[in-house]
Design brief:
The chain is an alpha/beta fold. 42% of the residues lie in helices and 18% in strands. The protein contains 18 helices and 20 strands. The protein has a seven-stranded mixed sheet, sandwiched between helices. Strand 15 (372-375), helix 14 (382-385) and strand 16 (392-398) form a beta-alpha-beta unit. Helix 4 crosses helix 5 (100-126). It is globular, with a radius of gyration of 26 Å. The chain binds NADPH dihydro-nicotinamide-adenine-dinucleotide phosphate.
Length: 520
């Protein structure tokens, strides 16, 4: 079998990119080697406008496939992904520098599950709802709530999960009957191009899914043409996207940054808690929106917990991924992210934090940072309050659960959170006090895999959500349909001309309907 690297070289050359129209080429760097993994066109506003026109022309035919026809294409795509998983993993690894396992577990497995989930659940979430009403004026009429595709959806994605977070949002948008234009991050566009090629092979009609490669300006141009924008990325860019969407009066769904806290109570299973802390802070080199970014530990178990986590983190292998089982921690994908990580660690140590493990950038080639554990941290430090997005784990001692909850909520973000305690009931009660879109008890990040549950941020972590019924209905407009049968009266009772007797009768009827009962 060919190695991952051989796959990359062979397959990336095969990826079909749109022809450059307005701009220059963008080189895609492999962050684990510094080599160029491919190049894509930097599309400008004209090219995006043309794509949008083609997408609109193609949408009606796709909508006419119906749930069954669209589900068939998604199910084929699920099998295509499995048949081509090594090729897709190789492409993801080549542009992110993440490990084979990070690509396999958190990208391929997610997308494969998502294809099947939306193919099966999409129709249930979007089927016409026949509504019953207590409103007397509509007795005997047919009342329907219908979900209609919005038309053209723009998806703008980040660089940390080119399959899960960029392409993943296209799946429900397509299942709902929309055309989609995806603008992947300029850092990681190759996976999206490969997936679009796969979708064509699976029978998706031309122009129903197009990839607008380019930089921020390409994303901004896309917002000008779509009926709804699904954005995943930083809170800073998310605000700009929301402003542009507001100007155009189109809906926007925003999945933004996070600073997820983990709380460890003194009765927790410390081995489980330590494994979760080490894994979910370092997985994907910490470049996950719902990574564990900070930990609060009750003082009675603090030293033991720090020792357990430090041992586990010290044992991690970091470096260039060479296929399955080669390293645990891969590269820092986005060059400026390295500056943020170093800045946060330096800021913390200057303010009194101590590095227990790691704490340095590793020499190249490639961009790597040592898996790092810090103690003696507090909320004067950036590493406890700003999104670091790297392989760092600051651990803070707290007096009790109340202090932990207060500090966990002391952030503008509110994406995910976790609580570890042997008392599951108490854990749930604490989870309910956390200002986060998702809270896991004795677990972390697992909520993301549950596509039946909504995934979205509180506070500055976002607006709207992906997954669950809302995760596909947001790509539709709602239409209320009222059908009166032809056996209806020629004139309804409340109509002109107004007559004293009828008005009195109606007033009495309203009193009968709404005026009875206690007034307390
Ligand atoms: P950015 O906000 O920098 O970029 C996101 C996307 O927006 C990129 O495709 C970018 O293009 C594009 N973009 C940049 N400027 C504009 C603009 N003015 N108008 C429209 N689009 C624009 O985020 P990152 O790529 O750095 O991603 C990391 C962030 O994403 C982290 O904060 C992370 O927490 C968050 N994230 C959130 C998730 C969630 O589900 N809540 C999941 C994953 C990540 P280009 O890259 O070409 O500049």
């Amino acid at each position: 079998m060919a190695s991952v690297e051989q796959h990359v070289e062979q397959e990336i050359l095969k990826v079909q990119a749109p022809a450059p129209q307005d701009g220059q080429e963008i080189s895609v760097e492999n962050p684990a080697t510094g080599e160029i993994a491919g190049s894509v066109p930097d599309l400008g506003p004209e090219a995006v406008a043309e794509m949008a026109a083609r997408a609109r022309a193609a949408q009606a035919q796709w909508e006419a496939y119906g749930f069954e026809g669209r589900a068939r294409v998604l199910k084929r795509a699920q099998k295509w992904l499995m048949d081509n998983s090594e090729r897709v993993v190789a492409t993801i690894v080549s542009e992110t520098g993440k490990t084979y396992e990070d690509a396999q577990f958190a990208e391929i497995a997610y997308a494969a599950n998502a294809f099947g989930f939306w193919a099966k659940q999409g129709p249930d979430y979007l089927v016409d709802e026949h509504v019953k009403s207590s409103q007397i004026l509509v007795k005997g009429k047919k009342l329907v709530l219908r979900y209609r595709p919005l038309g053209l959806i723009g998806v703008i994605g980040p660089w940390n999960y080119p399959l899960t977070n960029s392409f993943g949002d296209c799946i429900p948008a397509l299942m709902a009957g929309n055309s989609v234009i995806l603008k992947p991050s300029e850092i990681t566009p190759l996976t999206s191009l490969l997936m679009a090629e796969g979708m064509r092979e699976c029978g998706l009609p031309d122009n129903v899914l197009q990839i607008a490669t380019g930089r921020g300006q390409t994303g901004a141009a896309l917002i000008e043409h779509v009926d709804m924008i699904m954005f995943t990325g930083s809170t800073r860019t998310g605000r700009k996207v929301a402003e542009e969407a507001a100007r155009r009066l189109i809906p926007a769904s925003l999945e933004l940054g996070g600073k997820d806290p983990m709380i460890v109570l003194s009765d927790a299973d410390l081995d489980r808690a330590a494994n979760f802390a080490a894994y979910y802070s370092m997985q994907n080199a910490g470049q996950t929106c719902i990574s564990i970014e900070r930990v609060y530990v009750e003082e009675g178990v603090y030293d033991e917990f720090v020792a357990k986590v430090s041992d586990k983190v010290r044992a991690l292998r970091v470096g260039k991924p060479e296929g399955p089982g080669s390293v645990e921690v891969g590269a820092i994908t986005f060059p400026p992210q390295m500056d943020t990580i170093k800045d946060h660690v330096t800021d913390a140590t200057e303010k009194g934090a101590h590095v227990v493990v790691g704490g340095h950038e590793l020499p190249g080639p490639g961009r790597f940072y040592e898996p790092t554990v810090l103690v003696d941290v507090d909320h004067s430090m950036k590493i406890m309050t700003e999104e670091t997005f790297g392989p760092t784990l600051p651990i803070m001692k707290v007096a009790d659960a109340d202090e932990a909850v207060r500090l966990a909520n002391d952030t503008p973000y509110g994406l995910g959170a976790s609580v570890f305690t042997r008392d599951a009931q108490r854990g749930e009660a604490i989870a309910r006090r956390l200002e986060a879109g998702a809270a896991n008890v004795n677990d972390a990040m697992i909520n993301y895999t549950v596509l039946e549950l909504p995934m979205g941020g509180a506070k500055a972590s976002g607006l709207g959500s992906r997954h669950g019924a809302g995760g596909i209905r947001k790509y539709c407009s709602q239409q209320a349909i009222v059908v009166t049968s032809r056996l209806a009266m020629k004139r309804e009772v409340h109509m002109f001309p107004y007559k004293r007797r009828t008005s009195r009768l109606l007033a009495g009827l309203f009193k009968l309907l709404y005026g009875r009962g206690r007034r307390d």
